[in-house]
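haha ok so turns out i had the wrong file open the whole time. this is the CORRECT one, sorry everyone. sequence first:
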Amino acid sequence: MAFFTKLGETISATGKDVSQKAKELTELARMNLDVKAKEDFIEKQYMEIGKQYFELHKEDEEPLFEEIKLISESLMEIERLKSEMAELKGKKKCPACGAVVEQDAIFCNQCGAKCESIFEEETVTPVNENEEMDEEAAKEETIDFTGQEIHKEEE
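then structure:
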């Protein structure tokens, strides 16, 4: 019987040790997760500092870091590609806010800015109220996309 008592105590002690080790491993895993979360937070803060530095120094004549120039070039390339994509979809980008609008939109539906017309020039032939065209009315009026009138002689 002493054998079974000793076996029971050994199993009980081993169970307590296993339980303690499991608690320690759980605590270590939790602490590792906390460390990883703090490291991720710090990485995000570093990136935010970098973004702020870039915004402050992107217009510098000679930037301190070559990466500023590389980022600026990449941003311009992204904008060019986005414009091409909009054009392929039959749309265009608003010159003021950059929103994608329909190709024939006169005003941006996001910011209200006037968008360039897809037609560079629009021809308008004036009609005289008396239905008689004098020399002045025979001239073709052309309105360019800026709204200014350009007068050309009709050939």
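Residues 118-124, 128-144, 151-155 have pLDDT under 50 and may be disordered.
again sry for the mixup
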